[in-house]
Hints:
Blueprint: E1 12-16, H1 47-63, E2 68-74, H2 84-103, E3 111-118, H3 125-133, E4 136-141, H4 162-175, E5 180-186, H5 193-202, E6 207-211, H6 231-245, E7 253-254, H7 255-264, E8 281-284, E9 289-291, E10 305-309, H8 315-319, H9 322-326, H10 336-339, H11 344-347, H12 369-386, H13 388-394
Parallel strand pairs: 1-2, 1-8, 2-3, 3-4, 4-5, 5-6, 6-7
Antiparallel strand pairs: 8-9, 9-10
Helix pairs in contact: 1-2, 5-6, 6-12, 7-12
Amino acid sequence: MSGDGPAVPFHQFVLKVHSRCNLACTYCYIYRSPDASWRERPARVSDDTVRRTAHCIAEHTAAHRLSRIRIELHGGEPLLRGPEPVIAYAEAVRRAVSTASAASTAAPATEVTATVQTNGTLLTRPALDRLAAARIRVGLSLDGGTPALNARRTDHAGRPSWPAASRAARLLVEEYPASYAGVLCTVDAATDPEEVYGSLAALGPPAVDFLLPHAHWGGARPGRFRPRPTPYGDWLAHAFDLWWQSPDGVRPRVRLFTEIVALLLGAESAAESVGLSPLAAVVVDTDGSIEQVDSLKTAYAGAPGTGLDVTRNSFDEALRHPGIAARHLGARALADECLACPVLRVCGGGNYAHRYATDSGFRHPSVYCADLERLIRHAAGRVAEQLPSVLARTQSTHVL
């Protein structure tokens, strides 16, 4: 949907297990952003907060009769105290959701998919055994598949994380493939996309998600958006071609690319980075605070805050928070420049945090506006080359 109807219930719950990290990545948007609220939060989530969060999730899923939800166990580094706190959190949510579903004749049984997102440095065979037994999938955060590409990912003493992270990647693909969720990779436009994509694909992940580094307009007054130099669009267009031309058997699913192709063919979006579908994710921090997505931390101190928490409030109340409600407005929340743009339906204005300007808020095109248009038009051309008949049936609503 495009945000013209009632608020869409949350389907994705990002649960902070630990608020500290054993790495000091140079581009980290949690610890190097204007929002330093992590310093005031408990280092790890308490048992009481886990119980309250599980109860609130169960209440929400039963009230909205959701057949499936996702919980994403995050940090910081969520495995700083080993796999047990992660497993306990997932089990608490599953128990609460199952109990709520059983108690309601109207609510269906709800499937809970759990994933832990980790830098991989603490993933050992025993830890993976425990996570696999608990049906918790594992996502890795990497900048590529070589030591050099991961040079920005070091610990607090400047030591490289790659040796431990690469061991984790090999363990996952060789011994725990059913547990492997994939890789998140923040794009560095100074790198070679062929080296990044090729080295990541060689690690054998089932999926890769390329993320634009979090940035916004800052104090600059947004001006003309297109045409402009497009370093990230060029990088992603090259990576798209590498992915598009790869044989099916060795091609990981690249979420950004599959979302753009799906949008070009008329589907709804399921990602925050593109499309107009309402945001369906919410964050619970280690102190039980209910927050908007972490990317907003890059805008200004307190930007993700709602003033709500799981001890006093429900997720339905969070849906009514103005910041979250704004993410359900679809095109009505976008700048005039976006509304006049031919790639609007696919781009969707880009990531919400990337639209921010210090003196005028979020009603601007993405700071990556030109890059997104470059990628979308490139992808549309590639799709048109292979699927002319499909595009002919949908060309009235899609970018060609």
